[in-house]
Amino acid sequence: MKSVALFGNARTEVGKVSTKALRTEGKVPCVIYGGTDHVNFFLYEPDFKLLVFTPNAFKVQLDIDGKVYKAILKDISFHPVNDSILHADFLEISDNKVVEMGIPVKLVGNSVGVRAGGKLIVKAKKLRVKALPSQLPDFIEINIDHLEIGKSIKVAEVIAPNGIVLLDSPNNPVVSVNTTRAVQEASKAEEKDAKKKK
Prior knowledge:
Helix content is 17%, strand content 41%. With 198 residues, the protein is an alpha+beta fold. The protein has 2 domains: 3-93, CATH 2.40.240.10; 100-186, RNA Polymerase Alpha Subunit, Chain A, domain 2, CATH 2.170.120.20. A 6-stranded mixed barrel has the order 1-3-2-6-5-4. Strands 10-7-9-12 form a 4-stranded mixed beta sheet, with no helix packed on it. The protein has a 3-stranded antiparallel beta sheet with strand order 8-13-11, with no helix packed on it. The radius of gyration is 23 Å and the shape is elongated. 23% of the residues are buried.
């Protein structure tokens, strides 16, 4: 999995007043936990662009006043009206400690159901996994070549890379092909033709 570097500054004050002042200046209050240190810091909101507003997943090399942490973005809060970032939680990771993370789904192939006029519906853009940081993949590949109309591929049918444990419910659908009005009308027309021939 690729990494992105972010540079932050430790916070000297953590009350509501200082938090509001940070946001007014375009800064995002953050915390990193999970290791020996529990650090309150801030990042500039534009720095989240590569990390948040992308379908990809990244590990983070977090530099806080010169001290570097390996981390993943664990949680992020947005303003309900203007979508500005209110707060972000980072989890410090180590090479020998298993972590949980959402990994993007990558569909490959050409569904027979779509070729027959069905509509591809992606139910889950990411799957939650558990793995060592070194084994976290950029994406989880799912082949949809044999996916027919009215069928779905469930989590239980997904082949995860070695060392990866899928955490979502096995019965959850990841991708499906739904029938469309055109397909339904064509099917009805075929049935009428068949009856006429009889």
